Structures are given as structure tokens and as C-alpha cells.
Amino acid sequence: MNLQLRLDEGWFTVCAAGAVQPGRGVAALLPDGRHAALFIDRTGRAYAIDNRDPFTGASVLSRGLLGSASGRAFVASPLLKQRFDLESGRCLDDEEIAVQAYEVRLG
Amino acid sequence: MPPTLPAADRPTLLLVGHGMVGQRFLEALVERGATESHRVVVLCEEPRAAYDRVHLTSYFEGKSAEDLSLTPVDFMAKHGIELHLGEPAESIDRGARTVTTPSGRSFAYDVLVLATGSYPFVPPVPGKDAEGCFVYRTIEDLEAIEAYAKDSTRGAVVGGGLLGLEAAGALKGLGLSTQIVEFAPRLMPAQVDEGGGAALLKTITGMGLDVRTGAGTQEIVTDEAGRVTGMLLTDGTELPTDLVVFSAGVRPRDQLARDCGLDVGERGGIKVDEECRTSDDAVYAIGECAQTVDGKVYGLVAPGYAMAEAAADAIAGFPGSFTGADMSTKLKLLGVDVASFGDAHGATEGCLDVVYADSRSGTYKKLVIDPDGKLLGGVLVGDADSYGMLRPLTGSVPPVSPEQLVLPAGAGGPVKLGPDALPDDAIICSCHNVTKGQICACGTLPEVKQCTKAGTGCGSCVKTILQLLPQSGDKGLCGCFGHTRAELYEIVKVKRITSYARLLDEHGRESARGSEGCEICKPTVGSIIASLAPSIGAEGYVLAGEQAALQDTNDHFLANMQRNGSYSIVPRIPGGEITPEKLIVIGEVARDYGLYTKITGGQRIDLFGARVDQLPGIWARLVDAGFESGHAYGKALRTVKSCVGQTWCRYGVQDSVRMAIDLELRYRGLRAPHKLKSAVSGCARECAEAQSKDFGVIATASGWNLYVGGNGGMTPRHADLLAQDLSDTELIRLIDRFLMFYIRTADRLERTASWLERLEGGLDHLREVIVEDSLGLCDELESLMADHVAGYSDEWAETLRDPERLARFVSFVNAPGTPDPTVQFVAERDQMKPDLQVLIPLDAEGALSVR
Ligand code: SRM
Ligand SMILES: Cc1cc2nc3c(=O)[nH]c(=O)nc-3n(C[C@H](O)[C@H](O)[C@H](O)COP(=O)(O)OP(=O)(O)OC[C@H]3O[C@@H](n4cnc5c(N)ncnc54)[C@H](O)[C@@H]3O)c2cc1C
Ligand code: SF4
Ligand code: FES
Questions:
Q1: Atom 37 in ligand 1: residue holding the nearest Cα
Q2: From CA B392, how far away is CA B41, in angstroms rounded?
């Protein structure tokens, strides 16, 4: 099973699902040069958001820790710890900030 | 920010006095947009902008003038306010609407606000101006007292009120034998009643302060040089003393107002109406210099803040008024809790008292109740825990009987009325007039402080606020676990749980079972499992199996992430001792990978700027040369610093380097609630700074002294001496026990310093447990440490051994060979630093793309 991410052109295969440890993420280089952060939670559900941490500009969100709040998964940035909702990309600690979220599937 | 009119077109608001209330007033103007509509000019008599006078005494406890500042650095510039320091107002011309200063400058105003505060009252006794007489109001006063105290041995304070006791505590803290002279028959006559005064007296004399009540000061006696040598009291006694602090009350600074013909009260204070306007419509007065509509002059900061708000409302055209305030106070004087609230003296007609007094423990509690059972006020001395709950209940009939409210728990007083019982409109923070409802609308203490300002004044409401907030009252680690870290440690240990998922599903809060957990409990549990690994049968390697998913990023990559996503590398250099060969290897690796190198504050070398995919290659070379991980990334032992010691140093009495190396090698890799630091000095000169460490060792002629609970960092703390003249074996045994007891009982991210501060019974209790083995725990603590020492292996060597483990060290999972293009560097001082340009600042376009 592969982890795939939806781009304008169609589904883009990132890696084998087994390459991602549940509860953590990986970074992917997209064809247009952007970086995406992909995660799998402990139930096996996959998520993808932009890898760039908008607070520092560093490409690091894939290296944050996963958690859940009110039943929704988030990642906490490894730099200044702001949390981002993994489905919407919205920052839970600053409502003016959001990162792009991508559609993903295991296929 | 909306466009601001040119200064000339806006009316000028002139504020005289930049003290606590003055600054609050400026903030209130900003909040109401009045700094846009007015040109604001401030005349400040003191050489520095507003600071926290309430916490003035903490200046003697090491707080600097900057720490006490209430004025954010960029506040004036940001809001276009002109602040003139050291420029007092000398006279007011109300006709011309100008204020002049002693330097001859004249300031025009359209609106004038007086916030000149009070001056300390000095009784007109002969000798009051002698060298050695002081007052207690400004930072300069404290500096002068401190300097004079250096050559003094005895001090006296005139006045046994709130400030007098505080000043007395400060003199004692400066090492003077201290006496308090109070004219009234009891201490703190304004706040507490006779019974409370008696309890207070007992505790305060018990602390070694001399108290004389019912005696006034007749004369200050001086020597030929005009320096204070003693005090003559009205009862005929003569007290020898080198230094006198007058703290006999304050008087409003209303002279400016008197001179220009504004109305002042009979006993002083500029008369103001409900909007804090004086008898001249263009002039306002706020804070301690004002006499408010209820005829009072308030000497506390909370009513002053309320006046600042009322005046700002009036000036900005909002409704608002000040009609009077609660005089409740809660203080921790010399370590004694004292609180009074509402009608503390029982002045209401027909009221009744409910009193509980225990002179053994110095506790006194009185509640004033009206005949219908309504709580009117009270006095609490010695134990003021219930203040936060009682004060808001004032004016209502408490849900339980008043006896139950004053009796200690266990003595028929089982009902601990929580803040839950309070109505939503109960005022919790009286400094900022914030209700329970407003507080409950916030989630965390920082949010409460930011949104409502509650808790940012005197701080006495913080405890109650914490009880009102969601996780509070609830000691749980986070939203996922209702247990504390120490409880989780016990569960993991006893049930030998090696899986986070199992712990969460079996012991998490109902709502969190089966969930993902969170970024707080994951690393905490990861650390507990790592600390206990050998004893519970978990793998010692922190990245083994499921454990890898729990570790913070730094532990996950065994390096410290820097601001641009690159990493730093800190090889262990035990005791700070290193051979030239190893230095050369570090130099070569740094050169070959182009890393920035720096000597750290921990006596080792940090290599910065490695990309994640470079870490294995760098470590392969370091491990090859005999280096190990320095755990700079982990909540684990960092360094054991050393001084050069007996081997070389002419003063050294033991081999401190050897001991530092032994300790560092023994405890390396030990995961703990927070990082652990240590140092060993070869003699009492203490060149290794051991007393600022979690555990510090200082050599003596006959062995080692062990200090624990020291801290540098944000809240420095000197370590406490735990045991003296220990042999090598005794020293190590005691440190083993100390560390394991700390790991077992501390909270998440609690350094040993704050842990020891919190530990019930403090150092004595710690000594009982780990020196005298009062809990019979020592064998277990030692054997846990023995397991750790035997199970240690270097994390980087382990990682390099297994290609699967190395797979995670790539910038991109789908392009393992491609480096992260955003990790770039530029040159600086012959090395390199992160190029932050490529990261694009936050405000730039596109950075905030909301989907
Ligand atoms: C590298 C170093 C500064 C330097 O260039 O000298 C440093 C760097 C950092 N310190 Fe430090 N501290 C360094 C010595 C110190 C010292 C001095 C000492 O150890 O003698 C102190 C004061 C002593 C103490 O801890 O009591 C110190 C007190 C702190 C604190 C405040 C701790 C506290 O209890 O208040 C933090 C924040 C924290 O840990 O929560 C901190 C946190 C940090 C962090 C981890 C901040 C971060 O999260 O990025 C820095 C990362 C290091 C890295 O990326 O490699 N650092 N830091 C020093 C590494 C020493 C070493 O060899 O391991
Ligand atoms: C040691 C100490 C402990 C205290 N503890 C507490 C406590 O626990 N709880 C509590 O509620 N209150 C406490 N207080 C009282 C509290 O500090 C005051 O209520 C508060 O500072 C009043 O604020 P203010 O702005 O009215 O006066 P101040 O803070 O005194 O400010 C007035 C300012 O105006 C300046 N000024 C005066 N005349 C002129 C002039 N002509 N031109 C220009 N500037 C002028 C003064 O130099 C001063 O800087 C304490 C006070 C002290 C000294
Ligand atoms: S602490 Fe003592 S032994 Fe060590 S270097 Fe300083 S003076 Fe010498
Ligand atoms: S009561 Fe003083 S800060 Fe809240």
C-alpha cells in the first residue's frame, strides 16, 4: 500500500505506507518544489499538510509530534510548538494562521 | 494602526506622575484609542519609567530594576507617547493651562491628569533627618538602605503596619538585628483586629524580630558626626540602632493641586468626582493622590487601577465611574499569610464574629457575619488559603455554616468550599476587577492574564484562578491523563508497562482512551519508560519500536534542531577533559562538513548547521574517534563541569576532574523529568560553579560536600548543602538516591530546584528520605541506578549499527539523496550562520495562505 497525495495533476505517490511510523511524519518533495508533511496516526489514518512552519519559515512540520484534541489530529511544530490541525491545516494556537492541507489516501 | 493626526491638531493630554497608576492609565488610554486622538506627554519625577512598587522588596531578593519594570520597552514609542524622565512638575497654571518644571520648561495641556501618588510620612521628631534615616518607597530608597546597611549591625523600623513589617523583613534579610516600633497597641492596626495582631506578633517575634507596640518615637539620637546611634521612645526606653526606616504611613502628594487652588480633602487628597475629575474640569486626579467620592484616600494599587480606568473612560468618552473600592488585602509578610477583606473590623451594626484562634500555630481567623448570616468580611492570619474563596462570597450567605469556614480541615471543618461554589459575578481578581465568569471564559492562566489582566497585579488571586481553570483542581498531566507524572511513574513501574498505547488505553482519561494522545504526555511517558527501562523490561534504546513515536524531535534525531531546521551536535566530553587528538577530530569533522563551532557554557563543543541527512555521516566519524552522544537533546544528564583541581591548582584539595569524569560516566544517558547538570570544584573557591547545579560537589580537606537543587537559567537558585565530608563511595551512593528519588517524584519539566522548593518538608524531608532512609526506599533507589548504569549504551553507536534506524535521517522520504534546499547558510566571522532570508519572514505574502 502506498501513501498518495492529491495534487492538481492527480494522485502523487510519496512512499510505501510502511515507511511512516504511526504517530510520526515524513517530508516529501513535490514535483513543483514544495514540501509536504505526511503523517499516519495510531489508527492508521493518513494526513498531509505543507511542511513549512509559518512561524519560523523552516521546513520542519513533518518532524513534530502528533496528538489529538477534541477528537481531531494535530501536529505540534518542533520549533515553537504551535499546533496545526491535520485536516484543515489551521493553527490551533493562532486563528489567523493556517498552512495548506492536502487530500491523502492509502492506495 | 489608523492614521494619526499631526501632533499640532490633537489636544494634548499631560500626565504628571508615572507610577503604577500612571502606567495603568496610559494602558487604558491605548485600549480606548485615546493615544491616537490625543498627543500624550508624561512627566516622570523618578529617573526610570513606572515599576512595580508593590513588589519593591523583591529588589533585595535579587530582582533588578528591569525585572520590576511595568513599562514594556517599546511601549512609549509604539503608542507615540512622550515620556520625560527625571522631569517633575513644579507648578500648574490653570488659566494658561501650562505646567512648568524646575528645569524651566513649560508644557501646555488641554487635559491634565495628576497621578503623583503618596510620600512616606515622617513624624516631626528631632533627628529625623540624621544620616542613617530612610524611607521605603522607591528603588533609590532601597539602594541607599542597602549601601548604609553594609556598615551597620542594628536597624529599627518606625511603624508596624503593612509596609513597616515589609521593611523590617528586608532589614533582617540584609543581616541587621531588627526592631519594630509601633505606636498602636498591635501590629498592622489598619488591617487586623486585636486577635489577629496577637497571632501576628507571636509569629513575628518567633522569627527573631523585636517588636515594641504601644510606643512612639520621641527622638532620633545621633553622634557628633550626625549619624544615627539610637532612638528615644515615648515610654522612656532608648533603643540603640545604626539605621532607622520610617514607615509610619503615607500622605497623598497633593501640594501641586493645593498651590493652584484645586479642592483638596481635609486630611489631604485631591478631591475628585466619580469620573476622577477635580474641581477643574480639565484636570483629573487618580491613584493615591486622590480623595474619591466616598471621601477616602486609597493606599492600595487596586482602587488606583480602577480610578485609572474611570478617568480613561471619561477622557475617551466612554461611560465609567469610580465610586469606591474594596480594601481587601492579602499579603505574605515575612512568610506569614495575612488577609483582611470587607468589614474586617466589624463596624456594621448588629454584626457577629465567628473566631478561630490557635496560638500554637499562630493561626487566627475571624469572620464577620450579619444577623441573617450574610458574610460581611474577615481577618485571616497565619493561614489565608481560604481568602480567595471567602472574599468573593462577601455580601452573600455562604452555602455552609461560618464555623465550617474557619475550622481547620479535620476539626469538624470538612467542607473545603471550592471556588466552584462561587457565583459567576463574584470578583476573583480585585486588582483588575475580574469576575469568575470572565476567568472561566479563558482556558489557561496565560490566556486569563492576557485577556483579563487578572493575576497580573498583586498576584494573590492566581491560586484561585488556577482552581477555576479546566485542568485545575485536576492535577492531571494533560488532557489525556488524569494522573500526575509521579503517579504515572508508579503505574509504569509496578505494572511494568512498556507501551504508551497500553498506558493510555488502560489508564488515560476516559475521553482520551484509544486516541492519539498529545505532545505533552508522549515525551513524558517516553522518558519514564526510558528511566525505568532495565527494570521493567523495556528496551533501553530510546528509539526502539513504538518508543520512537513518543520522543520529541530532538530525541528522535538525537540532535538539537536549530531555527532553520538544521541540527547541532554535541559530543560528550566528560568533565570537560579532552585530548589534543580528540580536539583535532572535532576540528576536522567540523571543517569537512562546514559546521559552525562554538565552545558551550557546559565545557564542551557544539557543532552547528548539520542537515538531518548529514547526522549519520558526522556521527560515524565521531564514534570512530571514541566520542559518544552528549545528550544535549535529551531531558537527561548534560554535563558535569569540573575545575582543574588538586592536580594542577595550588589551592585544590581533591582531584575534581577525576570525580567529574566518574560522575558524568555514571549518570550519562539517564533520562529524567528535566535536564540534569552537575559540577565538581576542587576547593571552596568553587571555580566550577557547583552550587548552581542540580547536584554539585565541592572538595573539602576530608572528602566532598554535596549540594543539591541548584539552578542557573531563568530562576537561579543556590543549591542546598545536603551532606558534608563524604567519601567517594558515600558521595556516589547519595547522588544515586537523590537522582532516582527526583526522577520518581518530580513533575514533567520540573528541574530539581523547583522540585525541592515544592517538596513537602523541603530539604529536611529530602535528607530524611535519602540520608536516613525514613521511607525504606534507599535500597530500591540504589538498585534502580545500578540497573541504569549496567544497561547504558551509547545511542549514536546503537543507531549507526542498524541501517533501518538510519532510514529516518533523510530530508525527503521520496528523494533520500536530495538535501533540504531551505537549509542555507551565509558567512559570518570566518564561519557560517543560518541564512534566514530563504525562510521568508512570517508577514510576507503567501506565508499565511488560508485554505
Ligand atoms: C549550547 C548552549 C549555549 C552555548 O552556546 O553555550 C545552550 C543552548 C541551549 N539551551 Fe542552555 N545552553 C547551554 C548552557 C546552559 C547553561 C549553562 C550551564 O549548563 O552551565 C544554562 C544555565 C544553567 C542551568 O541550566 O541551570 C542553560 C540554561 C538553559 C535553560 C533554562 C533552564 C532553567 O532551568 O531555567 C533552557 C530552557 C529549558 O531547558 O527549558 C535552555 C535551553 C537551551 C536550548 C536547548 C534551547 C532550545 O530548545 O533550542 C539550547 C539548545 C542547544 C543546542 O541546540 O545545541 N538552557 N543553558 C549551552 C550548552 C551546554 C552544554 O554543553 O550542554
Ligand atoms: C514597599 C511597598 C509595598 C506595597 N505593597 C502593596 C501591596 O501589597 N498591595 C497594594 O495594593 N499596594 C501596595 N503598596 C502601595 C502601592 O505601591 C501604591 O498603592 C501604588 O504604587 C499607587 O500608585 P500611584 O501611581 O498612585 O503612586 P506611585 O506608584 O507612588 O506613583 C506616583 C509617581 O508620581 C511621581 N510624582 C510625584 N509628584 C510628581 C510631580 N510633581 N511630577 C512628576 N512626577 C511626580 C512619583 O515620583 C511617583 O513615581 C505598596 C507600596 C510600597 C512602597
Ligand atoms: S575551585 Fe579551587 S581547586 Fe578548583 S580551580 Fe578554583 S581555586 Fe583551584
Ligand atoms: S487580586 Fe491582585 S492580581 Fe488579582
A1: B713
A2: 38
